[in-house]
Design brief:
2 copies of one chain form a homodimer.
Chain A: H1 2-7, H2 19-35, H3 42-49, H4 53-59, H5 63-86, H6 91-108, H7 110-118, H8 120-128, H9 130-144, H10 150-167, H11 177-192
Helix pairs in contact in A: 2-3, 2-5, 2-7, 5-6, 5-9, 6-9, 6-10, 6-11, 8-9, 10-11
The structure holds a DNA duplex (18 and 18 nucleotides).
DNA sequence: GTCTATATGAAGATAGAC
DNA sequence: GTCTATCTTCATATAGAC
């Protein structure tokens, strides 16, 4: 669990953000999760941090750049999880590690999970942005555990949907992170491990 | 399976739509699924059926009314599934019937499923629209099978997320309805029945 | 039921001062 | 880094003719 925990930290690699930019990213993340990307105007973001639209434009050239920045934060977390899983030796173990990391990630950052899987803009982004697509392919490959048929596809789809969807489900909104995490880990073990 | 199959038909109860309205609803459903509700303009809907915006406004007083109409179609399907399940005598059997009906519904109407669970506007709608909330409560109650604790909550969240999320997952996009349905039914049985 | 034309407002974006 | 002011574009919505 150590590698995924460490990797979950939003790493600043190629792109480091200035404090003013980071404030915008943080505010955008919350608003995107609440209203969706499309329904979040620059005005709303500006209001949330108490500046004007023009000030936001001084930090990011366009709304797309803000979406990109938010997506990169999300991407970093997933990438770390996938890399931790790929470092394992057996396919079965890689799958377990990945599922655990996905649960950690999803619980710890519910807002991001919500955006990542639900927002039409983000979903389109996942299809069109090359680095993002690569990560999702690696993630799916691990979940499918070497197979490529319909059964493996549906199984992998169910697993990621179950995890990502459960953490943002209204039914668990009031559960604290610890309770949610342990229940999910437990259920995931029962549901999905025997299938391998 | 007969009751759920029969019930899945979009029933026209209190609100019957004129043909011109129905064309709008059908077009809107497709566009909402593709672009999200917010990113779908009345112009796009009008273009899709080959009329002008004004003609659309003649059928629905506002965009909200169109969203409402689309939501009602979605709601009708879910309601039928819930009612079929509630007609069962044992809780375990009700849960099985509901899960099967959810899979049928989800596979048969993937577009709707996508909108229902992913769109921020629809999600808000589910929270605020009383009839919709009631249905979701009944559905969740059946899935939780009498319990109310964290474990039951997470389990129910996982089940509905797994089904609804799997049918719209990119991994299964190319599978035909029959393959997807049978795989899902099979996996759902393996994963979720023993837990009850 | 559908059209043309138009009002109104909000969103993304830029220019230039402080 | 932030402001005021302004531009353009597009979306919702209405009026009134055919």
């Amino acid at each position: 669990m150590c590698p995924s925990e460490a990797g979950v930290e939003p790493r600043r690699g190629p792109t480091a953000y200035r404090p003013a930019q980071q404030r915008i990213i943080d505010a955008a993340l919350v608003l995107f999760a609440e209203h969706g990307v499309n329904a979040t105007s620059l005005q709303m973001i500006a209001d949330a941090i108490g500046v004007t639209k023009a000030a936001v434009y001084h930090q990011f050239r366009s709304k797309d750049q803000i979406v990109l920045a938010v997506a990169e934060v999300v991407l970093a977390g997933l990438e770390a999880a996938v890399e931790a899983a790929e470092a394992e030796e057996s396919r079965a173990r890689a799958r377990e590690v990945l599922i655990s990391a996905m649960i950690e990630l999803g619980v710890e950052r519910r807002l991001m999970t919500r955006i990542l899987q639900r927002d039409p803009v983000m979903l389109r982004f996942q299809n069109e942005h090359e680095p993002f697509r690569k990560i999702m392919e690696r993630l799916n490959r691990i979940l499918m555990g070497g197979s490529k048929g319909p059964e493996a596809r549906v199984r992998a789809a169910m697993i990621s949907a179950a995890i990502a969807g459960a953490v943002v489900h209204p039914l668990v909104e009031e559960l604290d992170d610890e309770a949610l995490r342990s229940q999910l880990l437990d259920l995931a073990r029962k549901c999905f491990r025997p299938l391998q």
